[in-house]
Amino acid sequence: MSTLAVVVLATFFASCVEAVEAVTIVVGVGTTRGWRSVWLGTISALVVLVLVVVVFGVALANVPIVPLRLVVGTLLLIFGLGWLRKGIRRVAVKGLAGDQFNEELDESDIPATGVDWTAFVLAFKGVLLEGIEVAFIVVTFGVTANQLGAAAAAGVAAVVVTAGIGFAVHPALRRIPRSMLILLVGLMLSSFGTFWSVEGLGITWPGSDAAILALIGFYVIVAAALLASERAAHQAASARLGPAT
To answer: What confidence tens digit (pLDDT) does each residue in 160-170 have?
Structure first.
């Protein structure tokens, strides 16, 4: 296999791994909280990313990514745990069927007008971090093999393909009950947040990005245990109130 083919394939698949994380955040947050502020955050991140790439170019390979991972990971973990808690409580009360997503959003923390800053920040930071990661991959493979143009094309193709797949499955997400969707997004954000924040502390995960799957499994187990406890408490409270009604 030629050097060009190796660079293109390696850049494409490595960039796909990073792009999947960004698309997961964008699609999950957009489906859960509404798309207007998510698109604003995504576009803003892409503008900043383009400016960073234009200004720094190949020097991006020397920019420290670790502090950015710590900041973004911590924020995602905070938001993710909050959504996980909300999802557990709603599923415990409403069950897995819950309220259907085609009903109007009933979240009191989602502003009716203006910018939903929670959605904006999550989309912005997720896209910016993963975009910079893709830029690092492109620069590293491209400069090393003297194939920067081919590597850049492969990186862009990976982002476009991954985004296309993500938004192709978006209609299926809308059929998931809202309570369950909040729980799923909370699981994903908590897993990504834990992964990035630990990496931001300079700790290398065993198995690299594959560790995200283990984190998802861990949070699923924790959520299942908390869900059982919350459901039991809700049923006990309902039983106590039953005779009075």
So the answer is: 998 888 888 77
